[in-house]
Amino acid sequence: MRGAREDHDSGTASASGSIAACETDGDESQYRQRVTDDEVADQPRRNETADERADRNWTEVLQELRVLQTGTQILTGFLLALAFQPAFADLALGRKGLYLVLIALSALSSVLALAPVAAHRVLFRAGAKRSVVTAGHVCLIAALAIVSVLLAGVVGFVFDVVIGGASGWIAGSVLAAIAVVTWVLVPVTVRTVRRKRAD
């Protein structure tokens, strides 16, 4: 009887171990299925499906849109207020032309920043979240590029009106260079270093 009971217990333990191993293998298989080829970078840190990742990326896009829209709204308000100042009529024709270019850039950046929101609303419940996230990424990069030119142009315009001479070109060029370094070169350098360490 004791031997039969021991055999039964050992069989039960073996069966339990097999079930646990199957469950572990199933979990690992499910995890591998949840991570696609374009999600390899996130594999060590996240366990999410493609749809979950799209939702997370869309939330990040919306947060970046809020930051970008705040800056463009301030610049647009500043530029629109200038046209109604008494001294605006005394500006030279070239400066008025630059002003109109800046207004156009400000409006274009706002349109690009709002494009992902409009696409999300039009494609609501169409199962195109990942496509909307990709389009939002492209629109944000384009809007950031325009905003960098807009910032440099506004600073150059103000320096030109206040000081004159080559001060506008110098101030605008310096700000544009700073934007290129902090917005492009630094992030690209960080990405390159991280990839080299991963290899």
From TrEMBL:
The chain crosses the membrane at residues 74-93, 99-119, 140-163, 169-190. Residues 11-21 have a biased composition (Low complexity). The keyword Transmembrane applies. Residues 1-10, 29-53 have a biased composition (Basic and acidic residues). The keyword Ribonucleoprotein does not apply. Keywords: Membrane, Transmembrane, Transmembrane helix. Coiled coil: none annotated. Residues 1-53 are annotated as: Disordered. This is Sodium:proton antiporter.
